[in-house]
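U., I forgot to send this yesterday:
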Amino acid sequence: QVQLVESGGGLVQAGDSLRLSCAASGRTFSTDFMEWFRQAPGKEREFVARIKWSGGSTYYADSVKGRFTISRDNAENTVYLQMSSLKPEDTAVYYCATRKSGQVDYWGQGTQVTVSS
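Result:
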């Protein structure tokens, strides 16, 4: 079992920055990737960013490439999403998740990010 708790969301203005955190507990050593997703009102949940738990390679959705940075602190079992140059279209509930053997197996409860214009 893995438990994921996101934090750091809030209300910001366009152009601002925000850092989300995802604290993981439980059998985190067994996961392959940590990922961030987001879901805007009335839309499907979409992939945002991924980091390999061992090695740290990263991958981003085109919509956030160059603005968002995913990182991890293995000692603290925490994954971060540094978001810069935020846009109103970044408004969503942001979720972290673990991926093992090609499947997302655990989700956090989500944290709301609202970007005003």
